[in-house]
Structure prediction request, 371 residues.
Amino acid sequence: MTATPHFTGDARPYAGGDPYADYRTADFSFTSLVDLADRRLGGGVIAANDEFFAERENMLKPEPAEFDPERFGHKGKIMDGWETRRRRGASAAEPHPTDEDHDWALVRLGAPGVVRGIVVDTAHFRGNYPQSVSVEATSLPGSPSPEDLLAPGVEWTTLLPRTPVGGHAANGFAVDAGRRFTHLRVNQHPDGGIARLRVHGEVAPDPAWLAALGTFDLVALENGGRVEDASDRFYSPATNTIAPGRSRKMDDGWETRRRRDKGNDWIRYRLAEDSEIRAVEIDTACLKGNAAGWATVSVSGGEDARWAELLPRTRLQPDTNHRFVLPERVRGSHVRIDIFPDGGISRLRLFGSLTDEGAARLTARHEELGG
Prediction:
């Protein structure tokens, strides 16, 4: 396994033109996993000790950070990120902050799960980024307040020890904690700014909640569904198809490049666990001139099992939500949608419930992860 690329030091001052031209980034293997802190999943920055220059909530915006060199406010330069004031020492004799001084923010994961990688993005923070960062995690039931999280006795696990970072860079860190977490504490030492935070991992849903729901969306990100593979990710990621809510614009769904052969495009999914599917929903919202022409949905009981047709090849309409009630329940753990010949869909929903075996395995994994 190759080492994760690492950045340190200042970036050059902005000199005009494309502000991302000298941005430092790399391909991190874990970024194919869902962002557990995504605002669209319900993630939030619920508290911070300081946000003098720029609000803490900016860290979880889904789009890349923007930079406007002319934008200033009454407190100074307005940045698209979380930025704290400059720390000072205790007195004129000791003007510098101590080694322990730092700023912090509490982040609620939108989908609790196992963290596999973290990106601390300092885009456009060229000389005002933190010298180093550290990240801790905890797991608390319900909807704890900041006071609950900061109370004595709360157990925090270090996901990232204090580590130097670089300015105007995507600072990526692989994580191997092997537990289920609900909240993070992001620390910047001693102060500075973070543009974006991404927390990639695997959703670990609460089996008690799914059991209470009974019938739910078996492939939804927040319920533990995931994309295993896709034929094309040219315009937008296949994971968008199992994101919460309806798509509100074209790039919030899955769109492929135009095919010039006789093939077709597809996505393969892993359901929350072994399930019985009762209904299918295929949405082409906001895809008006580039929706898929037809779609087929197939189901399988595992990676090596045979595929069986769940929904025959069916005509799709642009910008339309299509609903299909199955004549009988169909059991499976994996689903594949094939679109013909290309184009895209915005969402796929598969409604049903876990089998007894699937529920038992999900509960065992939840306990194994400390849930």
Notes: The chain has a mean pLDDT of 95.
